[in-house]
From TrEMBL:
Keywords: ATP-binding, Kinase, Nucleotide-binding, Serine/threonine-protein kinase, Transferase. Residues 55-315 form the Protein kinase domain. ATP binds at residue 84. The keyword Membrane does not apply. One of its GO terms (molecular function) is ATP binding. SMART domains: S_TKc (SM00220). Its EC number is 2.7.12.2. Pfam families: Pkinase. It catalyses: L-seryl-[protein] + ATP = O-phospho-L-seryl-[protein] + ADP + H(+); L-threonyl-[protein] + ATP = O-phospho-L-threonyl-[protein] + ADP + H(+); L-tyrosyl-[protein] + ATP = O-phospho-L-tyrosyl-[protein] + ADP + H(+). Transmembrane segments: none annotated. PROSITE patterns: PROTEIN_KINASE_ATP (PS00107), PROTEIN_KINASE_DOM (PS50011), PROTEIN_KINASE_ST (PS00108). Belongs to the protein kinase superfamily. STE Ser/Thr protein kinase family. MAP kinase kinase subfamily. This is mitogen-activated protein kinase kinase.
Length: 372
């Protein structure tokens, strides 16, 4: 394993005693992370160390809000992991690590709609977080997504958000397609909690400015206080992007010439105007259009909650089949249309390896090629 070769004692600290660095040990509130793994103040321990994982040399999975993610394997069990490395170069990184670890520890193994958590450890100036390895993100799927499939995806995301909002009092603050993961068996899970924020009650508000600009709500762009409705805005834009096949603000942001500051002012000016947030095509399913419009109301108080959205006709009128089944069948159809796997008639003839030996069809491998 590789990492930034620095001593944690060399880093600057601030007055926040909840995040302390001593040699290769991090004390983050109720959580302590060392080379031997993660422990909590309540005595819970995740026994995971650098020697327990084998990192794939070619398994780069993506870039999160605060670090890179690679595919790895647990040495003893052979289980696939997504290993996120966060190089510690500032006190701000420690706060991100604390937020993510606290959320993963408390929620990652308690909800089927949040990515699972296996442990964390320190190594050579970095913190490594081991999570459930999914097969791709919504940023990588072919778009536009069919309406009935989109309803199943949206329902799964809403159930994850509902768990964060109602049961955990957490605002995700960085909901976007790349932070919503899927597995080839049709599961949808929310990930990347490095900028999430805890609210003591459901009527509280947050104030800090973090997250991805494109999916940020008007109240957040304006520097106003915000609450769970900010996530609903981001969710609405994610659904719109999957339905339209592109980010709704792509053309407007193109004028910013890749400048974050210019993009900020372009979006702020657009969302402060009297015009519509986005113009949906008249051919769009009416229930879907109404669903998206409800999520992206400029007035945060006018946006529905997750619970209310789960009762919207776009969701309730969708196919009653199991959401996992609907999503899995869609992934299979995409693969077949891309001719990455043979049709049912062709499957009667065994596939051949380069050496001429008979091989079985590995559907998961073929689907993985499609979405990467």
């Amino acid at each position: 394993m590789s990492g930034l070769r620095i001593s944690l004692d060399d880093l600057e600290s601030d007055s926040d005693d909840s995040a302390q660095m001593t040699h290769q040990v991090l004390r983050l509130g109720e959580i302590t992370v060392s080379a031997e793994g993660l422990t909590t103040s309540m005595g819970y321990k995740y026994g995971l160390s650098p020697d327990d994982v084998v990192v794939s040399a070619t398994g780069f999975l993506g870039q999160g809000s605060s670090g890179s993610v690679r595919r790895a394997t647990h040495r003893k069990t052979g289980e696939a992991l997504a290993l996120k490395e966060i190089k510690i170069t500032s006190q701000a990184h420690l706060q991100e690590i604390r937020r993510e670890l606290e959320t993963l520890h408390r929620e990652g193994n308690n909800s089927p709609y949040l990515v699972g958590f296996y442990g964390a450890f320190c190594h050579e100036g970095s913190v490594f977080i081991a999570m459930e390895c999914m097969d791709g993100s919504l940023a990588s799927v072919r778009k536009p997504v069919p309406t009935e499939v989109l309803a199943s995806i949206a329902r799964s995301i809403l159930r994850g958000l509902w768990d964060l909002h109602r049961n955990r009092h957490l605002i995700h603050r960085d909901l976007k397609p790349s932070n919503i993961l899927f597995s080839l068996d049709g599961r949808i899970k929310i990930s990347d909690f490095g900028v999430s924020s805890f609210l003591e009650c459901t009527r509280a508000n947050a104030h800090s400015f973090v997250g991805t600009l494109t999916y940020m709500s008007p109240e957040r762009l304006k520097g106003e206080s915000y609450s769970f409705a900010a996530d609903i805005w981001s969710f609405g834009l994610v659904v719109a992007e999957l339905a339209l096949g592109r980010c709704p603000f792509t053309e407007k942001l193109a004028r910013a010439n890749s400048s974050t500051e210019a993009g900020f002012w372009v979006l702020l000016q657009h969302l402060s105007s009297d015009g519509p947030v986005i113009v949906l095509p008249p051919t769009m399913d009416s229930a879907l259009a109404d669903f998206i419009s409800a999520c992206i109301q400029k007035d945060s108080q006018s946006r529905p909650t997750c619970e209310e959205l789960l009762q919207h006709p776009f969701i309730t009128n969708a196919m009653k089949d199991d959401d996992k089944h609907v999503i899995k069948e869609w992934l299979l159809l995409m693969a077949m249309q891309a001719e990455l796997i043979p049709s049912s008639a062709e499957r009667e003839t065994p596939l051949m390896t380069q050496s001429g030996a008979t091989a079985s069809l590995n559907l998961d491998d073929e689907l993985s090629k499609l979405v990467r």
